[in-house]
Amino acid sequence: MSALLGTLGSISVMAQSTNVYSLNAVGYINITAVPGFNIVSCPLVASPDNTINTLLTNGAGTYKTWQVWVWNPSTAAYVEDIGTAHGWLNGGVETMNPGQAVWLLNPSNTAATVTFVGTVPSGTNAVTLPAQSFQLVSSILPTSGDITTNSLMNFTNGVRTDQVWAWNPATTSYTEYIKAAAAGTWLGGDPVQTNVGGGFWYFNNQATNNFWTESFSVNE
Description:
By secondary structure, the chain is mainly beta. It is built from two helices and 17 strands. Helices cover 4% and strands 45% of the residues. The longest helix is centred in the N-terminal third of the chain and has 4 residues, at 2-5.
């Protein structure tokens, strides 16, 4: 668990011992949404679900005129929702599950803090990387850094000419990484997820789906 302690604003281990025994790492993360477009993710399991309406509660118009753009790799198109004075225009029904990144547009001139609360995904979980297709993805777990060498992210099964496109909102430009022929080598250096609750585009060049698998136990 030590690798996560520095990323969660608050964390507790909850144990219950009756007929069922469970352990959960519970906490919250703060994301800074700068003016303009940001790629963000929620690496926590929220309650009751991970819909936009739950994660970005907007009944009082907190996110009025904000926009969320969710990528659908099956249709190669976005599903958009816009904040109104009393909720989300399309109901906020799209998801932001752990491992799934979305575009979040902050329409103001100042940065804003977005807080997500939930439990850290436990066990072994996988992000599906569709065959020969782009997908907006993130670490399933609340961590950041080199996605290849990070012991929690541990993404090592990319193939030649796979691509990572990391968005920099400060420069409104991408940093591109391409998998080279040599095992474990990426042109541009190993891909990095800069922030907890961030994300990036991944192009899987394989003819079949690839899977980015991450594992976590509260005993780690």
